[in-house]
Amino acid sequence: MRPKILMIHGGGTTPDIFRIQARKLDAALSQFFDLHYVTASIECPAGPGVLPFFAGMDPFLKWMHDQPPDLEDLDTFPALDDMLQVFHTEGPFDGIVAFSQGAKAALHLLRHLERERGGDRAVDFVITVCPTCPFQGIKDPKDRRSPYAKACLELGKVQAESIHVLASGDPYNYEGESMIEFFEPSARKVFRIEGGHHMPMDDGFNRKLAAMAARIYNGI
After folding, report:
1. pLDDT tens string 12-24
2. Taking a C-beta distance cutoff of 8 angstroms, is the pair 84, 109 a contact?
3. Other CB atoms closer than 10 Å to residue 173's CB: what's the count?
4. Is the pLDDT of residue 85 over 70?
5. SS3 sequence, the chain?
6. What is the tens place of the pLDDT at every residue in 211-220?
7. How high does pLDDT run on average in the chain?
8. Residue 43 to residues 36, 47, 59, 206: CA-CA distances in angstroms?
9. Furthest-apart CA pair in the chain: how many Å?
10. What's the pLDDT at 99?
């Protein structure tokens, strides 16, 4: 059986839209892995950049309701139980690829799974692209004065090897810079590339990400 990756779409899209958005990375990863696209459950307006290109592909879906920082749950989201069921019944999964709000869902999922395993890694690797941050209201990744941010960070860092793709033109880039703080520093790699809030389109870069994922899976 080939190794498998859980593909987590962003907010205001669908798995079918994500297949198109991630088509170049999908093609590169598919040389080594089977890809399983999972579906969010909350209907919502279209996400950034979805319209007009993906008009007619509704209902658009998201993983969670972004809340003010004093109301947002520190460590869960509405679809966590559904995603855990997918992880346990459709897996085992060896890696995760997550875009935008999907990276936020992936973080909560991985912390939950690693706690289940006594701190051991739940997957070999996770790739986040243009992630949005697990807490709202922090505009500077160095700002840890918020009690909410401090409490969220103290819940622990994801131990799986992680690859993070941040884009200089992404309006949510400050959230992506904060997101990487939630992953073990010795096991993470960060790429800062040009572009906006979208999946990378450069063929060579996507092949590089896929090769890195394959090397991590194979323990190289």
Report:
1. 999 999 999 999 9
2. yes
3. 18
4. yes
5. CCCEEEEECCCCECHHHHHHHCHHHHHHHCCCCEEEEECCCEEECCCCCCCCCCCCCCCEEECCCCCCCCCCCCCCCCCHHHHHHHHHHHCCCCEEEEECHHHHHHHHHHHHHHHHCCCCCCCCEEEEECCCCCCCCCCCCCCCCCHHHHHHHCCCCECCEEEEEEECCCCCHHHHHHHHHHECHHHEEEEEECCCCCCCCCHHHHHHHHHHHHHHHCCC
6. 999 999 998 7
7. 88
8. 21, 11, 6, 30
9. 47
10. 98
Block residue for tokens 């459709």: 90
Query: Is 197 strand, coil or helix?
Result: coil
pLDDT in tens, 116-149: 999 899 999 999 999 987 555 455 545 555 555 5
Residue 160 tokens read as 């799986």
The string of DSSP letters for 37-85 reads EE---EEES--TTTTTTTTT-PPEEES-----TTTS-SS--TTHHHHHH
User: Which residues are within 8 A (CB) of 84 and not within 5 positions of it... i.e. 6 or more apart?
Assistant: 109, 112, 113
Rounded distance between C-alpha atoms, residue 152 and residue 14, angstroms: 28
In which element (H, E) is residue 7 found? strand 4-8
Amino acid of residue 198: H
Task: Check residue 199 and give its pLDDT.
Answer: 97
Both structure tokens of 46:
């279209």
